[in-house]
Design brief:
Keywords: Membrane, Transmembrane, Transmembrane helix. The chain has about 350 residues and is an all-alpha fold. The chain is built from eleven helices and two strands.
């Protein structure tokens, strides 16, 4: 290439990029690969919503707490919003399909809006599991009054925080000007990313990494405490039924933690590489969509395949059943004993 790359890595106006034509290989194929599992996952998400509404209308005992279900639906929604935001922010540009078009587009605020949207939706994905964990803990600690307390948490804290926090944490991006940037080795020529500039990118990484660490630590602390309470329940009871539900609850908590650990690890690797050794960021960037897509697909499938609400009617107990994936029994009875939740 005879043309000189600008210091910020922008490809705007460079003829080599304007005439770039992607060659079909594994790099370009990865732009289509996620749809193999994302499209069925969307179908599963819609099926979960329809089955829940049907079970609720039929007063099915295997249905789940409506506050928790609401945040599971928020979680699905933000996962999908983030998936498509990150797809156009990273996945599709790295495949090279936007390179020629992007080289002819001046840096602009529309690209900044895409980055704002991608980060804001990702914060929503991070917040939802924290809220679900908080609801589960509330039900476990106060089985007699959980409906009242969950409602207070839902409307006074959870929903406002879910929508205000992502906007507040990403609002500074409106001052940036987004552009298309060539990624360094090991990415090949033509693999680009929609970028907000080094200073804004650094600020986004710092905020995202700090917020992720705080919410993950809180989730881990609440889950550890719930594990402890479940073990105490198992030790202090002689009921075979309670022990069975406790084992299911422990499996549920393990799956919930596992599904959040993978994206936390992959995103943390990318964040720490960017902060402490910027050139290595390009080498580990491929991990980010792997972890995020894992989280997007795992939760809906685990819920769909394990919750009694989605099994055949013959397999559903006439008593309140505990899910192997999420908390679910909603109890308002004043006389019921503490509930094993999962």
């Amino acid at each position: 290439m005879s043309e000189v790359m600008p210091a910020n890595g922008s490809i705007h106006g460079l003829q080599a990029y304007k005439s770039y034509v992607p060659v079909f290989n594994f790099t370009t194929f990865q732009a289509f690969l996620p749809f193999i599992y994302i499209l069925p996952t969307i179908v599963v998400m819609i099926t979960i919503l329809m089955r829940y509404r049907k079970a609720k209308a039929a007063s099915n005992s295997a249905t789940m707490d409506h506050n928790i279900f609401a945040f599971i639906m928020f979680y699905f929604l933000f996962n999908m919003l983030f998936y498509f935001g990150d797809y156009f922010h990273l996945n599709l540009p790295t495949a090279g399909f936007l390179t020629s078009w992007c080289a002819g587009i001046e840096p602009n605020r529309v690209f900044s809006a895409l980055i704002f949207y991608s980060y804001a939706s990702n914060f929503g994905v991070i917040i939802c599991p924290f809220m679900v964990c908080l609801m589960r803990l509330t039900i476990m600690m106060s089985p007699r009054h959980n409906e009242r307390y969950c409602r207070l948490i839902m409307y006074r804290f959870a929903i406002p925080f879910l929508f205000i926090a992502p906007i507040a944490l990403t609002a500074f991006n409106i001052t940036s000007t987004g552009y298309c940037m060539q990624l360094n080795h090991p990415f090949s020529f033509g693999s680009i990313i929609i970028y907000e500039g080094e200073e804004h990118a650094k600020m986004n990484i710092y905020i995202h990494f700090t917020f992720s660490c705080c919410t993950f630590s809180a989730n881990l602390a609440m889950t550890t405490f719930m594990f402890y309470k479940l073990r105490m329940t198992q030790v202090n009871t002689t009921s075979a039924r309670t022990k069975e539900l406790t084992r299911k609850a422990e499996s549920s908590l393990f799956l919930a933690v596992f599904s959040s650990v993978v994206p936390f690890i992959t995103n943390s690797i990318c964040s720490t590489a960017f902060i402490f050794n910027r050139p290595y960021w390009d080498y580990v960037l491929f991990l980010r969509p792997i972890g995020n897509d894992f989280e997007t697909t795992m939760m809906p499938w685990v819920l769909f395949l394990s919750h009694p609400m989605f099994r055949s009617n013959k397999k559903i107990s006439s008593t309140n059943t505990v899910s192997t994936a999420f908390v679910t029994s909603n109890t308002t009875s004043q006389t019921r004993k503490p509930t094993v939740v999962c």
